[in-house]
Specification:
227 residues; mainly alpha; 8 helices; 73% helix
């Protein structure tokens, strides 16, 4: 017990030493990426695979493990790539401080290294599509946001593309209804006429809801399960 306490005390001195802070941010980033990826993917994979996949219990558990491992690995590796590139760019900066586009460059490198080299991985596709959708929403908000609003140190605030305040309020009020309606219109059209182009997990869920609901031959597979 004394040895364990001594070891814990020694390790705590290391992690609290400012001399090791930068390198330990990489370790902490990897840890957080793995933990978050596991927490997000495991319950999702557990439900989706056990509900919609066929096979033995062992094969389903293996699929859950593989999807969880892939998600956790991707986020952990991206954290390492992004944070190490940010440190490198900061160290090579003439001022020794972060520059305005360092995050963009670090994200570009990490995105290519972790996500950009394997288009056939469904977990990676889902993560990238999720990020892309959030970026589109953020850019849409920035487009109508007045300049200086939401500004943080080093940032530029809104783009201020709409100078007329009344027009800006109208766009803000109606943007989401239009976006939601057009998004669903487009995905249903694509699914109806070009289903092979829809992301596999989305296609599977849409087939379950909209196609398999057209067919039954008994009360049992009308109420309890599909044919």
């Amino acid at each position: 017990m004394d040895r364990l306490q001594a070891l814990e005390s020694a390790l705590e001195k290391i992690v609290l030493n400012p001399q090791y802070h930068d390198i330990l941010t990489l370790v902490k980033g990897i840890r957080n990426g793995i933990v978050y990826g596991t927490k997000v993917r495991f319950p999702h994979a557990l439900v989706m695979i056990f509900l919609f996949r066929h096979g033995s219990l062992r094969s389903k558990c293996w699929l859950v493990f593989k999807a969880t491992r892939q998600h956790a690995r991707n986020l952990g590796l991206f954290a390492l790539a992004y944070k190490s590139t940010m440190l490198l760019l900061r160290y090579t900066s003439p001022t020794g401080k972060e520059r305005h586009y360092d995050a963009f460059l670090a994200g570009l490198f990490g995105g290519y290294m972790v996500f950009g080299r394997d288009i056939h991985n469904s977990v990676s596709q889902q993560i990238v599509i999720y990020v892309f959708a959030r970026v589109c929403l953020a850019i849409a908000k920035l487009a109508v946001q007045p300049r200086g609003v939401g500004k943080i140190e080093g940032g530029g605030g809104g783009m201020g593309l709409i100078s007329n305040e009344q027009l800006r309020r109208e766009i803000t009020r109606n943007a989401w209804p239009a976006f939601a309606s057009v998004s669903w219109a487009m995905v249903m059209y694509v699914f109806r006429w070009h289903p092979e182009t829809v992301q596999p997990s989305l296609r599977s869920s849409m087939q379950y809801i909209y196609v398999q609901s057209d067919h039954w031959d008994s009360l049992r597979n009308f109420v309890w399960h599909n044919k």
